[in-house]
UniProtKB/TrEMBL annotation:
GO terms for biological process: auditory receptor cell development; catecholamine catabolic process; dopamine metabolic process; methylation; positive regulation of protein import; sensory perception of sound. It is a single-pass type II membrane protein. GO terms for molecular function: catechol O-methyltransferase activity. CDD domains: AdoMet_MTases. Keywords: Catecholamine metabolism, Endoplasmic reticulum, Hearing, Methyltransferase, Neurotransmitter degradation, S-adenosyl-L-methionine, Transferase. GO terms for cellular component: apical part of cell; endoplasmic reticulum; plasma membrane. The lineage of its organism: Eukaryota, Metazoa, Chordata, Craniata, Vertebrata. Its main location: membrane. This is Catechol O-methyltransferase. Gene3D superfamilies: Vaccinia Virus protein VP39. Its EC number is 2.1.1.6. The gene is TOMT. It is found in: Cell membrane; Endoplasmic reticulum.
């Protein structure tokens, strides 16, 4: 390419970089820098974050552990976690609904797991599912460090589409009063239909879905709005540390099979 042609494209390139600078920064932090640090340290980012928690957070204090993870994400490495803004929405909804049994698909590092667990009513139970064994090992340690035992929070390692059919028989979950979908948005619709098909959603159950705007779950939202079995509401938020990137939590209330 000649210098003249390159110069002709320069204004366009500058315009795109300015307009999408937040997405560019997110790409650098979540992909490029993370991959470099993974190679240099031999540890995953979640493992590095847990090491930071061990030396800076108070054991048995889930609130302090969550604050420590937020600090790590803002000042050390971007964690791609739910963050405090969405976390407040999640905790408020869990406290309002007071589920006897809650289900989380996508434990990740355990951040949202702690949010749900600390908002459960007395005697409440949470089952959380994580497909990656190495990530699940970090989350398990974080959950126990926060003071929650296996009677309150049980972590299941496996693919959601394989775990859901076994929830009733193997894990004695007959109904999920509240469900958080926080794994892969492209799997939300499939797993919601699996929960329906296995009669795990009682009438009045609340289904929450993170990241429905970014990266987005359009088929899931279209189904929830058009099937006639859900009352839908969208809580608009931004990504942690990237408020200009708009995201949201979908809140579905199940009316029954109908």
């Amino acid at each position: 390419m000649s210098p003249a042609i390159a110069l002709a494209f320069l204004p366009l390139v500058v315009t795109l970089l300015v307009r999408y600078r937040h997405y560019f920064r997110l790409l650098v932090r979540t992909v490029l820098l993370r991959s470099l640090r993974d190679c240099l340290s031999g540890l995953r980012m979640e493992e590095r974050a847990f090491s930071y928690v061990l030396t800076h957070a108070l054991p048995g204090d889930p609130g302090h552990i969550l604050t420590t993870l937020d600090h790590w994400s803002s000042h050390c490495e971007y964690l791609s976690h739910m963050g405090p803004a969405k976390g407040q929405i999640l905790m408020r909804l869990v406290e309002e609904k007071a589920p006897a049994c809650a289900l989380e698909l996508g434990t990740y590092c355990g951040y949202s797991t702690l949010l749900i667990a600390r908002a459960l009513p007395p005697g409440g139970r949470l089952l959380t599912v994580e497909r990656d064994p190495r990530t699940a090992a970090v989350a398990e340690k974080l959950i126990r460090l926060a003071g929650f035992d296996e009677h309150t929070v049980e972590l299941i390692v496996g693919r959601s589409e394989e775990v859901i059919p076994r929830l009733r028989t193997q894990y004695q979950l007959s109904r999920a009063d509240l469900v958080l979908l926080a794994h892969r948005p492209r799997c939300y619709l499939r797993d919601l239909q699996l929960l329906e098909g296995h009669a795990l959603l009682p009438a009045g159950a609340t289904v929450l879905a993170d990241h429905v705007l970014f990266p987005g779950a359009p088929r899931f939202l279209q189904y929830a709005k058009s099937c006639g079995r859900y009352h839908c509401r969208l809580h608009h938020t931004g990504l942690p540390d990237f408020p200009a990137i708009k995201d949201g939590i979908a809140q579905l209330t199940y009316a029954g099979p109908g």
